[in-house]
Amino acid sequence: MNLSVIPFFHQHTGTASYIVVDQSQRYAVVIDSVLDFDSASGEVASTLADEQLKYLDQHNLSLVWILDTHIHADHLTAASYLANRSQAKSVIGKGIAKTQQRFRLMFPNGNQETSVENLFDKLVAEGDTLSFGDNEIRVMDTPGHTDDSVSYLIGDNTFVGDTLFMPDSGTARCDFPGGDAHKLYQSVQRIHALPDETKIWVCHDYQPNGREVRMQTTVADSKQNIHLRHQVSESAFVHMRNERDSTLPVPKLLYPSLQVNIRGGRLPKPSDNGKRYFAIPISNLTHSDM
């Protein structure tokens, strides 16, 4: 098949982003793009996205789709940035409507949001296909980590977002609003029902035990995932997942990521003084006079 996958790794957030190329017509898609954000200084940069744009330019490739597997809670998407510098259309799962509704009222700029149809160019769901040169992109609903999670199948490649990590790293957390460990288990079973030779490309690698970065496995190898091997039952998986999730810290970039990602990669609108701000909700306040 006339396809190639070029991985990019964002070390600061452990995020894997991909350019997929249809060699026949020189078309490309970007999957799970990243903006840089330094929480100490508030600086937003486009280093990785610019590397991808440079690659596209150097190889005379036309970017046609910018795909997000879900609303990320640990990094800012560069979807809007890339779309503004190309003719490409942004794509995300239709479940984004529920996800956006859950999160938008957490923030003071929530009433500035417009409908998801105005924030993303195309909303996709189970069974939808996108034209991609001599290939097509097939959509598989894979909720559980979030209710808008989808996987993209291109040839013998599937891009699974956070649903699965490398076999030595386990599976996605399910404790965000809309997350569901039962649904995650069922989504993983659907992915593992694909042909054994199907390549699985993950969205994150946290390099357990300091090993080198790995971003691609196969369905056959993924069946030995540390959270799923030995044909673990759904009830046992759900118990493990919920117990584990109760110990996990809040992602460091949770609130900045959500405020950008529910708006398709757009930064918060400027305040009266012309500056843009990220809001962080305060919780567990015990003294009313603080």
Attribute tags:
single chain, 290 residues, alpha/beta, Metallo-beta-lactamase, Chain A, 6-stranded mixed sheet, 23% helix, globular
Low-confidence stretches: none
Number of helices: 8
What is the total tally of β strands? 14
Q: Which percent range fits the helix content? A: 10-25%
Based on helices, strands and strand pairing, what is the structural class?
Answer: alpha/beta
Can you list the strand order of the major beta sheet? 1-2-3-6-7-8
Rounded mean pLDDT score: 92
CATH class designation: Alpha Beta
Which architecture does the CATH hierarchy give at level 2? 4-Layer Sandwich
Summarize the biggest pleated sheet.
6 strands, mixed
CATH superfamily: Ribonuclease Z/Hydroxyacylglutathione hydrolase-like
Structure, described:
This protein is α/β, with parallel strands linked by helices. 23% of the residues lie in helices and 23% in strands. It is built from 8 helices and 14 strands. It has helices at residues 47-58, 79-83, 96-104, 116-119, 181-192, 219-222, 234-245, 254-261; strands at residues 3-10, 15-22, 27-31, 36-38, 43-45, 62-67, 89-93, 122-124, 129-132, 135-141, 150-154, 157-159, 199-201, 216-218. The chain has a 6-stranded mixed β-sheet. A 6-stranded mixed β-sheet has the order 9-10-11-12-13-14. A hairpin with a 4-residue loop joins strand 1 (3-10) and strand 2 (15-22). Helix 5 (181-192) packs across helix 7 (234-245). The longest helix is centred in the N-terminal third of the chain and has 12 residues, at 47-58. It is globular, with a radius of gyration of 19 Å. The chain starts with a strand and ends in a 29-residue tail after the last helix.
